[in-house]
Amino acid sequence: MTTTQTPVLAARGLVKTFGRVVGLDGVDVDVYAGEVLAVIGDNGAGKSTLIKCLTGALIPDAGTITCDGREVTFRRPQDARAAGIETVYQTLAVAPALDVASNLYLGREERRPGPLGSVFRMLDKQGMRRRAEEAVRDLGISTIQNITQPVESLSGGQRQAVAVARAAAFGSRIVVLDEPTAALGVKESNQVLALIERLRENGLGVLLISHNMPHVWQVADRIHVQRLGRSAGVITPQSHTMAEGVAIMTGAAAA
Amino acid sequence: MLGLTIEPGSAAAELERRRHSPAQRVQHLLHTHPALSPAIILLLTCIAFTLLNDRFAAPAALSLLIQQTAIVAALAIGQTLIILTAGIDLSVGAIAVGSSMLAAMLAAEQGVPAPLALVVGVAAGLVAGSLNGLLVTRVGLPPFIVTLGTLSVFTAVVLIYTGGQSVPGADLPDVLTWTGTTFPLGDFRLTYGVVIVALMYLVVGWALSQTAWGRHVYAVGDDSDAARLAGIRVSRVLFSVYAVAGLIYGLAAWVLIGRAGAASPNAIADANLESITAVVIGGTSLFGGRGGILGTLLGALIVQSFAVGLSLAGVDDQYRLLAVGILVIAAVSVDQWIRRVRA
């Protein structure tokens, strides 16, 4: 990683307030291709607000966002998606009663070619199923055996895998993961961490929001520390220990 | 490396084993095929009533059953769409009656050409449904409250407009009563109204299963936050559902005029509850996101077959009410059971 490289996603001076509550107070972020940037911070530090602004779920009051150096405005999650930014929300944003393939394509269903698709708006179910299978296989998620089973029949880790697969299959620039291991056991967490490393190997930028310091120190290239709505500094797992990182996070030390 | 291979003796293996227990298998089957339980109930109902009185299975009785089911079955299509989005529509009957009265009054008393009167009547259903949709999506009121309010509003408007008077069949043009015309189909006698309702089922069933819109309807009812985060425009989908439901009620109004042979502001007083009953017995979840219109059609047929079968068996009509009530509670219990934690 060199600083001369253009960040694939960058934000400058992001401000977001909710009534009189300040969520973000002038935050800068840079995410480069092929790196894992972790965002850590205490509750209420503005982590979620930050990623929501970066993914179009919230519109910042002030500040600019650039993609590959070009300024962009995200008014809806679709805008961020169109720019190649995919998000795995903490709530996973999967429809439990729909099957795995339908969930992978939820909100961007593909239609059949020809008049069946253009006039009758018919879904290309088989095509989507086939490509969903490929996406799941390419990521090495063998835990999902049947692409036609409803998501609610899956375990927490498998659901997480579906959400990550969706993001990885469509994200061309950035995959944002909000607390991806929070609800998972040790084994399932390791699977998700391995998946994150695979996304980085594929050249995507990964933005990882996590409370779990060992996980952050395990996979992150750089760590953005968020404190009281501001950036308290960017550190690396090499430059700082976990304890030092937590100290910055809580304000006991400066970066 | 990422593979979750199932180790013997692990919890995963235990769950895998448990999934194959008979109860789990039934649960899974009902879950993947929501129309299965109403289909079984309908089959058992028909067998039972045929054993009680073999005239039940005769074409004459079955033709009557189908004709009598048509209106509730039509209204229940719109109700299903709305319940799939985790909403409810209490204004079903009021909208259908309003549409039928508007078309009938325009044609019979204002001298409007019959086809135009019909189009205006059906369009009124669309407008009324859209109003529900606007109140749900723009004002953000719960569907129960919105449609409870519009139930009274629409009913009052219809009564004020008509002065509570019916339009007798003799004053109605043929176009409006055409839906009541019968034609033979083998040994059966069906009406054109039945054909219209059947077409509505085909079109809506196709839209639900084959288009992105259909999938979004399910996703919105399943988890609207997840749907929004997945990029679905939830308000737009919800609004379209209420508007389409209104259009369906408008078309059902046409079938209603044909069936009744007249237009009365006091027709189908029980339509709200009957349509919801059909949907619920049909296996569609009141919590949204689960079910379909095939089940609804079966549900409507079950309710009506109780009416026909019990009267053929010489049983008092109150027992139909009793049986339908028990079925509704049973159907919701089955739905809860299916929804319970799996895997």
UniProtKB/TrEMBL annotation, chain A:
PROSITE patterns: ABC_TRANSPORTER_1, ABC_TRANSPORTER_2. Residues 9-253 form the ABC transporter domain. GO terms for molecular function: ATP binding; ATP hydrolysis activity. It holds the Pfam family ABC_tran. Keywords: ATP-binding, Nucleotide-binding. CDD domains: ABC_Carb_Monos_I. This is Sugar ABC transporter ATP-binding protein. It comes from Jiangella aurantiaca.
